[in-house]
């Protein structure tokens, strides 16, 4: 269980948010699944809603903007930066693209949305009054984030160059994966999408939420109208499953061994 009330070190996954066609439907789904309570923003913020446990910020939820109704429901991972403009320039220099230029979000912080050279979308967040996760690695909170690419070598080079990660390659035959570390602390991973993954699956960042019982969480997802993408399996790091909410946004749930 991790508590934090100050900005996260540069390169650390520091926030996730969900964009969906129906925000209130999402509030009901995740409230029932994780026990989240909510703090709804003002009309000025598009009613951007903070998910909380014990009064601590966990994630954000928002509805797609008018004119973007065809956008799929998706969770986005944000990486902490101390200078969003400088990092955006580094992303472009390393072969990535900026799809939403750096912008101030009131006094909360400064953000941009980017794509790595393989097309995986992620955000960068320069903290203002909003520093990101205040609780992580606890049931109902985010416990892991990983970027998955069709070009593993290229992804390692890109993220290492932009964020200065220390990489520990854990790859084995048929499995491409490296952890990413900041200041000696492992903060996430970068992996390769294997040939067995359907070609229509795009490069992406995946969010893992911690749960006390993976099988019970998967059953609850189905009960709430969600779907199972990958049934629960045991891994060295816990029992994990990939699911999608009732509007199609994929995510993973994991319980520690």
Give the terminus-to-terminus CA distance. Answer: 15 Å
Compute the average pLDDT.
95
Shape: globular
Strand content: 35-45%
Query: What is the CATH homology-level superfamily of the largest domain?
Result: 2,3-Dihydroxybiphenyl 1,2-Dioxygenase, domain 1
CATH architecture designation of the largest domain:
Roll
Given helix and strand content, the structural type is alpha+beta
Low-pLDDT regions: none
Radius of gyration: 17 Å
The CATH top-level class label of the largest domain: Alpha Beta
Summary tags:
257 residues, alpha+beta, 2,3-Dihydroxybiphenyl 1,2-Dioxygenase, domain 1, 4 helices, 45% strand, globular
In words, what does this structure look like?
With 257 residues, the protein is an alpha+beta fold. It folds into 2 domains: 2-127, Roll (2,3-Dihydroxybiphenyl 1,2-Dioxygenase, domain 1), CATH 3.10.180.10; 138-255, 2,3-Dihydroxybiphenyl 1,2-Dioxygenase, domain 1. It is built from 4 helices and 18 strands. The protein has helices at 23-34, 84-93, 152-163, 214-223; strands at residues 2-3, 13-20, 37-40, 49-53, 56-63, 74-81, 97-105, 109-115, 121-127, 135-136, 142-149, 166-169, 177-182, 185-192, 204-210, 227-235, 238-244, 250-255. The strands form 3 sheets. An 8-stranded mixed sheet has the order 3-4-5-2-6-9-8-7, with helices on one face. The longest helix is centred in the N-terminal third of the chain and has 12 residues, at 23-34. The two termini are 15 Å apart. The model has no long low-confidence stretch (mean pLDDT 95).
